[in-house]
Amino acid sequence: MTIEAKPAIEVKDLAFSYEESVILDGVSFSVRPAEIFFIIGGSGCGKTTLLRNLVGLERPTRGEVLFDGKSFTHADANSRKEMLKTFGMLFQSGALWTSLTLSQNIALPLEEYTRLPADEIRNITAFKLAQVGLAGFEEHYPSEISGGMRKRAGLARALALDPRIVFFDEPSAGLDPVTARNLDELIVQIRDTFGTTIVVVSHDVDSIFGIADRVIMLDRSKKGIIAEGKPSEVAVDSANPKVVEFLTRRGVKAG
Ligand SMILES: Nc1ncnc2c1ncn2[C@@H]1O[C@H](COP(=O)(O)OP(=O)(O)OP(=O)(O)O)[C@@H](O)[C@H]1O
Ligand SMILES: [Mg+2]
After folding, report:
1. Would you say the C-alpha torsion 246, 250, 252, 253 has a positive or negative sign?
2. What does pTM read for this prediction?
3. Residue of the nearest CA to atom 9 in ligand 1?
């Protein structure tokens, strides 16, 4: 008999509206520990909105989000803050501070959330940059490195506090296919090394088939999930032509 580990993330009957406009309704799913889990679907279906609900930037209008079996939605401010410290996030815009060096960018969360001395913080930032293949670029500014390197620097910053869960919004957007595959490899390597749970929002079909353990596909008119499972199974089994169409346009940047 195998013992099922408690889900790392559980979303129960989540609904969310921007003012009068309902974006998500009745969304339920679980993410297992150390899983690479993708949220996929066409533009405007609510992927970023769902991610923002997961990390507490938006509050669900109904339903609940739990981490390791503990309610995040109904936790008090202190427990929420403690839970937030265990997340790393890399948003769609990437958002490194352009006036700060890579080293300073990665030091920010450490300065905000820990009381480590400056030399320790310097060691950690150097280590995190090395982890994403950017050793030696500590004193570079974001404008002095390529787009792919900026993504990796953003990843180093997301990893600064040794998160248990990392959330990514469109990590491969704007990258050439080779750089995007390298980033995928790095994501897998981080999961394999640290057992990190990884949630990725993406329309990149190569990335979905390349590294996702499981996916959920959202749909704008359903305001929720229209498919769930392993990418290869979902692509073959789904009775919904939207799902099959989305997953079979390989090599095309879905809009
Ligand atoms: N701050 C906001 N206020 C009002 N409506 C919003 C806001 N942000 C997003 N929306 C609407 O919510 C819907 C879902 O947006 P969301 O950004 O979650 O989509 P997405 O799936 O991430 O799309 P994309 O693939 O283009 O990033 C869209 O119809 C969008 O117009
Ligand atoms: Mg989005």
Report:
1. positive
2. 0.91
3. 49
